[in-house]
Specification:
Distance between the termini: 36 Å
Strand content: 25-35%
CATH architecture of the largest domain: 3-Layer(aba) Sandwich
CATH class of the largest domain: Alpha Beta
Shape: globular
Structural class: alpha/beta
Radius of gyration: 20 Å
Helix content: 25-40%
CATH topology of the largest domain: Rossmann fold
Number of helices: 7
Largest sheet: 6 strands, mixed
CATH superfamily of the largest domain: P-loop containing nucleotide triphosphate hydrolases
Strand order of the largest sheet: 7-8-9-5-10-11
Number of strands: 11
Length: about 250
């Protein structure tokens, strides 16, 4: 199956449950952009309840081979867009069509069971990732070897140092090449020696994935790994195009 992502006029609104001070000089009806700031979306006021439009009318298409970098200030909508592409959040307007298996490497260290062994956590994380029992069994030895945990793999996860836990989480998260890879910042793990190995593995993962979308403030990294850039501001597309046309 050919992987693809088609976003058509995507928008996402959040209800605001707390009262907010109305900014002087702005009308109450319609959209109210945040003044002199690239952070946040647009406030939308109605008779019922004010809302924050985190994403506003986004349209783009990604095909195999596309490596899209998301840039913009904190709060511009980068992570929110990734959550929508991962289908964790549902858009409130527009249409999203995703063809292909999506692997979202967000918070890879979350969700491990402290009392379970490293080996058991590999099984549990694999199931959470949607892997079959057969695939988990096929990847088990490779994950253990890459993590460099040795006999500690059969010790409780709560006994691991921070570096050991990070190595296991990274090894699981990058064990299967995705058709569509979503990254909220580049991920690495472990001490200096392991970080070099982790970087090489990430580069291979990006190269082998059908489509990649990564949000990052590291423009140098995006120039190395992406062929297109989407610049977000207030949840809107400020600019979309080849890397050298969007990033100076």
């Amino acid at each position: 199956m050919k992987s693809s992502i088609i976003a058509e006029n995507l928008s996402l609104e959040y209800r605001m449950h707390k009262k907010r001070r109305i900014i002087p000089g702005f009308k109450r009806k319609g959209e109210i952009p945040l003044p002199q700031s690239t952070v946040g979306g647009d406030f939308v006021f109605s008779r019922k309840q004010p809302k924050l439009r985190a994403l506003n009318d986004l349209s783009f298409t990604l095909e195999p081979g596309d490596r899209l970098g998301l840039i913009g200030a904190n709060g511009a909508g980068k992570s929110t867009l990734l959550m929508v592409l991962a289908q964790i959040y549902q858009p409130t307007a527009g249409r999203l069509t995703v063809e292909g298996r999506v692997d979202a490497l967000f918070n890879i260290g979350l969700g491990f069971r402290p009392e379970a062994t490293g080996r058991r956590n590999i099984v549990l994380r694999g199931l959470i990732n949607g892997w079959s029992s057969k695939l988990i069994a096929e990847r088990m030895d490779e994950i253990i070897e890459f993590s460099e945990l040795g006999d500690f793999i059969d010790m409780p996860y709560k006994s691991y140092s921070q570096g050991m836990a990070a190595r296991l989480a990274f090894s699981i998260a990058t064990a299967v090449t995705p058709e569509i890879l979503l990254l909220d910042e580049w991920i690495g793990a472990g001490d200096t020696d392991f970080q070099k190995k982790a970087k090489d593995r990430m580069l291979n993962l990006v190269e082998d994935a059908g489509i990649m979308v990564i949000a990052s403030h590291n423009h140098s990294l995006l120039k190395q790994t992406c062929n297109r850039i989407l610049h977000l501001e207030h949840g809107r597309i400020l600019k979309l195009g080849p890397v050298d046309e969007v990033i100076a």
